[in-house]
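User: Design a sequence. Structure:
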């Protein structure tokens, strides 16, 4: 019903910037929670950032401690797209980044839809 699709991954040098995009196709008007997760080789998938909105108004945003001050999550209502602006990238940021979407994440603690992921590689 809803299919998040990520884009914008690639190879970047440490200290550089990258912007990931996630477009939720389908009946995305019902989505009010979206988030970014990442998984590095040999490690568990971890939370990166999340955003919640009520209509067109941003209500809440949260970040993992490891990315606070460096990453910014935002939404473009006209394009039905959520972005993750990543600045001051570190080699530890290297991972597959996944976009997730849900209808009641704050109530259930679960995301309903997941993308296929996009690779981000940060060289030292």
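Assistant: Done.
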């Amino acid at each position: 019903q809803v299919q998040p699709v990520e884009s914008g991954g690639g190879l970047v040098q440490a200290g550089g910037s990258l912007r990931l995009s996630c477009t939720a196709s389908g009946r995305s008007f019902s989505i009010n929670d979206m988030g970014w997760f990442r998984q590095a080789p040999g490690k568990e998938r971890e939370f990166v950032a999340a955003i919640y909105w009520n209509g067109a108004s941003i209500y809440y945003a949260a970040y993992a401690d490891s990315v606070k001050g460096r990453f910014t999550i935002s939404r473009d209502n006209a394009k039905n797209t959520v972005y993750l602006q990543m600045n001051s990238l570190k080699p530890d940021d290297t991972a597959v980044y996944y976009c997730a979407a849900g209808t009641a994440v704050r109530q259930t603690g679960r995301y309903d839809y997941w993308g296929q992921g996009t690779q981000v590689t940060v060289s030292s």
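Residues 35 and 50 are 4 Å apart (CA to CA). The chain has one helix and eleven strands.
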